[in-house]
Amino acid sequence: MHAPAPSRPQTAPRLPPQRTHAARGSLHAHRGAPSPSLAGPQASVASARPPAGCLRTPAGAGARGLPAPRLCGGFGLIDAMLALLVIGLVFGIALPAWNGFVSRSHATAARAALSASLFDAMRESSLGYHSAVVCPDGGGVCAGGTDWSVGWIAFVDRDGNRQRSIGEPLIGRQPPLPDDVRLIGLAGRQRIAWTRAGSVGSNTSFTLCDRRGPLQAQRLILSNGGRLRIAPADPGAAAACVAGIP
């Protein structure tokens, strides 16, 4: 016969540990705090997002014993130097182009003003039975010299002496040209006199230049009949014209 198996000793059932008053208070406080999952997705995203202007610290940087780099950066010296370099390049390219555009506009306006004054003088001489004169302005009278950049006047020359006398009306008056433009006439034709027949006697010319240089200078040729046309400027006259620009 087999011997009866020894019976296992019966143990008392384990009861859950009694929570103390402090533990129960901590549990109630924990239960009363809002859960991150219940606070909404915005709270969890905001808590995980690094501050503005900062990057996340590399994972494991502290565990490897390496000092975590400072990842919260701003506008540093290198950024400032790069910005100044870009600004310098922009100004270096745009500023000369803008100055050239302004000088060309001034030269075009000066040519148009001269053409208008010559046309008005020709019309007045044809219709008023008197000659008309166009010359550099010397304070309301004809100035000596070949520099028309000081401005010019057109007047009715009733006595035919090619000088503006008392009582001779002005047809028009052009103010001085901008500093970046010069208009130079011929030494032998400091005045342009229109006859009653509407002619100037013989051809004459001007040299028009600006700060763009001698290669951009123009020769304005006035025909006997009053037509003003454009031709390439003489190299020597163009260089002398540009040399007088401040």
Give the overall silhouette: elongated
Largest sheet: 4 strands, antiparallel
User: How much helicity do the residues have?
Assistant: 25-40%
**Estimated share of beta-strand residues:** 15-25%
**The CATH H-level homologous superfamily of the domain at 98-243:** minor pseudopilin epsh domain
First CA to last CA: what distance? 136 Å
H-E string: HHHEEEEEEEEH
Nearest-integer average pLDDT: 79
Task: Report the strand count.
Answer: 8
Which value, in Å, is the CA radius of gyration?
Answer: 46 Å
What is the name of the CATH architecture of the domain at 98-243?
A: 3-Layer(bab) Sandwich
Low-confidence stretches: 20-30, 32-41, 43-47
Tally of helical segments: 4
Q: What is the structural class?
A: alpha+beta
Strand order of the largest sheet: 3-2-1-5
CATH fold-type name of the domain at 98-243: minor pseudopilin epsh fold
- The level 1 CATH classification of the domain at 98-243 is Alpha Beta
Detailed description of the structure:
The protein has a domain of 146 residues: 3-Layer(bab) Sandwich (minor pseudopilin epsh fold), CATH 3.55.40. A four-stranded antiparallel beta sheet has the order 3-2-1-5, with helices on one face. It is built from four helices and eight strands, in the order αααββββββββα. About 11% of the residues have low confidence. The N and C termini lie far apart (136 Å). With 246 residues, it is an alpha+beta fold.
Task: Record the SSE blueprint.
Blueprint (H helix, E strand, L loop, with lengths): L20 H12 L8 H8 L28 H51 L3 E6 L15 E6 L12 E5 L6 E5 L6 E3 L9 E7 L7 E5 L5 E5 L2 H9 L3
Antiparallel strand pairs: 1-2, 1-5, 2-3, 4-6, 6-7, 7-8
